[in-house]
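Protocol step 4 of 5: obtain the predicted structure for the target chain.
Materials: sequence only (see below). No template structures provided, no constraints applied. The aim of this step is simply to have a reference model before the mutagenesis design in step 5. Sequence pasted as it appears in the construct record:
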Amino acid sequence: MEDILSMLETLPDEDIKAFIARAQEILLERARRCRLSEDPAIGMWKDRKEMQDSTAWVRHLREYEWQ
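Step 4 output (C-alpha cells):
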C-alpha cells in the first residue's frame, strides 16, 4: 500500500483523476456482483450485546474513544 501511495504522490493531477475513476469502476463492478443484503459483513455483529443499541454504542465511541 505504501508503494501505491508513494507512486500517487508523483503523478500529475490528470493521472490521479484517471486512477480514481478506474478504482470507482472496479468498486462498482464488485458491488454489482454481490447484493448488499447478501454481503457477509451485513449483520455480522447482530448477536453482540453492545450492538443492541447501536446508536448509543456509536455515541460512546465518538465521545470517549475518537478524541
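Step 4 remarks: Residues 2-65 form one domain. The chain has a mean pLDDT of 87.
Proceed to step 5.
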